[in-house]
Each structure stands twice: as structure tokens, then as C-alpha cells.
């Protein structure tokens, strides 16, 4: 179960946004990991919020997905998107 944005840690916010963007772009964890130069296990741990990801790896993941890093750390990224689509 996901925590509400108010109580989610930055690590959890990044992981949740990473997973959502990856799924929206229909990219597997394995493909994302390959394109970012990381392991699939590492990507899985980042998405679940159990891995403390470095800023360098955050940048590699954002670049591999073709999204700005700032979007992946924005706790309101998807709520803002839903408002724009409404």
C-alpha cells in the first residue's frame, strides 16, 4: 500500500514516480536498467523505496526514461497530471 504524499519519504516518492513513468512508457525494469547502466535488481529496489539511490543514478534513470529528473522527485507529479487531464 502506498503512503500518502504527505508522509512519503523522498526515496519513496522517487521510486513511486519512477515506476509510474516506466509503466506509462511501457518499459520493463530490465530495459530501463540496461539503458541506465544499472542492474534490474537495483531498479526494483529503487522503485520499492528500499534502496537509497544516489543523485548520479537518479539522473541516469531519468535520462533512460527521457524525463526531467525534477519530475521524478515531485510528490505531486501525478496529481498535477490528473488535474491537467480533467
From TrEMBL:
Annotated Pfam families: HTH_3 (PF01381)
GO molecular function: DNA binding; DNA-binding transcription factor activity
Domain HTH cro/C1-type stretches: 18-72
Source superkingdom: Bacteria
Keyword DNA-binding set for record: yes
InterPro entries referenced in this protein's UniProt entry, alphabetically: Cro/C1-type_HTH (IPR001387), Lambda_DNA-bd_dom_sf (IPR010982), TransReg_Diox_bact_type (IPR050807)
Gene Ontology, cellular component aspect: cytosol
Cross-referenced PROSITE patterns: HTH_CROC1
Keywords for this protein: DNA-binding
Name used for this protein in its record: Helix-turn-helix domain-containing protein
Organism: Pseudoduganella rivuli
High-level lineage: Bacteria, Pseudomonadati, Pseudomonadota, Betaproteobacteria, Burkholderiales
Amino acid at each position: 500500500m502506498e503512503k500518502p504524499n504527505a508522509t512519503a519519504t523522498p526515496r519513496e516518492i522517487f521510486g513511486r514516480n519512477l515506476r509510474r513513468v516506466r509503466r506509462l512508457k511501457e518499459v520493463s525494469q530490465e530495459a530501463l536498467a540496461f539503458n541506465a547502466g544499472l542492474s534490474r535488481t537495483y531498479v526494483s529496489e529503487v522503485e520499492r523505496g528500499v534502496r537509497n539511490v544516489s543523485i548520479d543514478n537518479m539522473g541516469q534513470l531519468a535520462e533512460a526514461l527521457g524525463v526531467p529528473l525534477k519530475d521524478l522527485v515531485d510528490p505531486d507529479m501525478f496529481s498535477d497530471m490528473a488535474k491537467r487531464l480533467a
